[in-house]
Amino acid sequence: MKSIQHLFRRFLQKSVIQVIKYLDYDRQSRSLYEKDCLLICNKMILREDSNLLMTPISNKRYIKNDVLGIFIVIDGSLVNVINHKYSYTVQISEKTRQTIQNLFNDKIELQRKKMEDEITKNIKHSLKTIAHSLD
């Protein structure tokens, strides 16, 4: 009985996922350039040797990778992919912009957390040293 219930729930779940994917017009309407741009941004953001910068006033985001020689500027719905040989400007949809922005923000948040942990670790070590020196 549980097996039949499980199979039915699984079938229902797969059906709902297929319907959602079918009705997701933004995903279907992404151009080939937009898909490639999203893939490039994702890979560049996830690389450890990429530098991520964000300007608080203009809300532009910058991804720079010296090893690959690639520089990306994300300005709203425009993404500029720049290399020493080429420069491409790609118009992206709102959903793609949100996807890139969320991935970018998550990566910056991880870097901030890592830096904060390093700073607090140094403070804890310094406080222990001071405490021992007072003995």
Would you mind describing this structure in some detail?
It is a single chain. The protein has two domains: 29 residues; 103 residues, no CATH class. It is built from four helices and five strands, in the order αααβββββα. The chain is of the alpha+beta class and 135 residues long. Strand 2 and strand 3 form a beta hairpin. The mean pLDDT is 87. A five-stranded antiparallel sheet has the order 1-2-3-4-5, covered by helices on one side. The protein starts with a helix and ends with a helix. The protein is 61% helix and 19% strand.
Question: How do the strands and helices of this protein lay out in sequence?
Answer:
Elements: H1 2-23, H2 25-29, H3 32-46, E1 51-54, E2 61-65, E3 70-75, E4 78-83, E5 87-91, H4 94-133
Antiparallel strand pairs: 1-2, 2-3, 3-4, 4-5
